Amino acid sequence: MQNGTLLAAVDLGSNSFRLEIGRFDHGQIHRIEYLKETVRQGNGLDLERNLTPDAMQRGWDCLARFGERLAGFKKAQVRAVATQTLREACNRDIFLAQAYEILGFPIDVISGREEARLIYQGVVHMLPQSDERRLVVDIGGRSTEMILGQGLDARTMESYQVGSVAWSMKYFPEGQFSPRAFDLATIAAKAVLDEAVNAYRSGTWDAAYGSSGTIGAVSDVLTAAGWSPFLVTREGLDWLMDRLLKAQSASRLKLDGMKEDRRAVIGGGISVLRAVFELLGIEQMQAAQGALRHGVLYDLLDRERDLTDLRSTTVQRLTRKFNADAAQAQRVSKVARQLFLMARAGMPSAESEHLQRKLAWAAQLHEIGSQISHSDYHRHGAYILDHADAPGFALPELHRLSLLVLGHRGKLRKLEADFEDRIFVQQLLCLRLAVILCHARRDPDLKGLQLEAGAVPARLFVLNCRPGWAEAFPQSAYLLQEEVLAWQKTPWALIASGL
After folding, report:
1. Do 13 and 160 share a domain, yes or no?
2. pLDDT tens column, 385-426
3. Are residues 156 and 95 in the same domain?
4. pLDDT, tens only, 77-92
5. pLDDT tier at 458 (50, 70, 90 boundaries)?
6. What's the mean pLDDT in 234-251?
7. By three-state DSSP, how is residue 348 classified?
8. Nearest to 354 by CA among 392, 297, 309
9. 479 with 356, same domain?
10. Is the previous residue joined to 391 through a cis bond, with omega within 30 degrees of 0?
């Protein structure tokens, strides 16, 4: 990454959408611009967990404004992530398809644990280096993340479905504050968070930090009232709840330091925060400057190189965990990448390397289901990937890998995949051909073998073999002929010359 490069992170949260733009300078990212809009998609889920048309439109309108600011940014400079509301929304694909067109960049729906990991990275990159054991808490609109870590290493991560927007809608629906409503909301939050007690109990960390949202808002109000800056204490929380009870409703609440958009969800947020303090024995929590969006920015730097890309480490962990044949995985990976280079001749090297890396991950993972079933291992491998705890990966990324693993053998019609996606089809073909060529579990003879992709819009691949290759490797030739037949049942065609 060159010094001076601009990077941008878009956070599609349940309460607010945020855009952070920073400039890379000698390993650090310095803020250039920050935009935040209260979209409150978290209260736009109906009883069937579909986003309402109004909630979707609010999101699209905000992203249109963000997209204008990001005009001119390259794909590698921007990452957009979506959290709990879009994890829950049954019609999220409808929202995301339009959102992609409006923003101009893909949007990754990330898992709760991946959100927690990125939050931790954002927080610790904005703190002084230290060996202290840190507890990081982020109370969002519909989820609360908790992380234990030391240095840059997040060791325990979890996401719980409790947040300021959801709890305000449920326990303070008219914005009315009462002792009973606070008691019910706090007890309900404790019930959700109770399993966190053992993992995050007092004594497992040296200092507690609160990120973004509710904790930042509470800190701002307490600081304005004369309490210690950037610090939330039990006494401060009690004082603030007393002020809410005296106001009796959000509409009558007047507090210095509280932004207008926070009043409607402060009741739910304080209830969850009280539950966290009481369950984990917290006496004080420091308001952190870093947040999810900062973690996304630093993760962009790591994703640029294979050696620092956490996803590569995750792939290695999964192959070890499921005892996949490492030698075969590397063999198939090498051949698949060679074929992909042939098919994508002329592609810019940076883009090609990025796509090759993803193809290599699929190759390394293609046999992880073999410990479960010999005949259907591709199906089990795909299932594992769709449900794995895979740090560094967004949910759509994992699903794309699972489709490659599912499709690396057998009939292609079983894939619920987009065969209009030319890159996916090329990756799939290269993986299938690599598996065929490596079927004997030894390095194949690729001399004189060439794979060509027809020019757009042609949906054609041509595999050329040198004279005598088919006679030298009859089993491989037979399998390639079967592969030609398999592609005839798709919108694409494969021609094998020399067989």
Report:
1. no
2. 999 989 999 999 999 999 999 999 999 988 888 899 999 999
3. no
4. 999 999 999 999 999 9
5. confident
6. 95
7. coil
8. 309
9. yes
10. no
Closest to 8 measured CA to CA, from 28, 25, 26, 32 = 32
Torsion region of 175: left, alpha or beta (phi above 0 gives left; psi -120 to 50 gives alpha): left
Do 470 and 435 form a contact (C-beta atoms < 8 A)? no
Question: In whole angstroms, what is the distance from residue 330 CA to residue 336 CA?
Answer: 10
Q: 335 with 438: CB under 8 angstroms? A: yes
Q: Say whether pLDDT at 308 is over 90.
A: no
Domain that holds residue 77: 6-110+295-299
Q: In this structure, is residue 13 part of a structural domain?
A: yes
Query: Is residue 360 located within the same domain as residue 488?
Result: yes
- Label residue 352 by pLDDT band (50, 70, 90): confident
Q: Compute the distance between CA of residue 388 and CA of residue 379 in angstroms, rounded to an integer.
A: 14
Residue type, 344: R
CATH number at residue 193: 3.30.420.150
Q: Which two tokens stand for residue 356?
A: 């090759």
Q: Let me know whether 389 and 249 are in one domain.
A: no
Asked if residue 228 lies in contact with residue 311, where contact means CB atoms within 8 angstroms, the answer is no
CA proximity to 210, closest of 268, 287, 262: 287
Single pTM value for the model: 0.89
Return all residues near 317 (Cβ < 8 A) that are at least 6 apart.
none
Amino acid at 8: A
331 plus 272 within the same structural domain: no
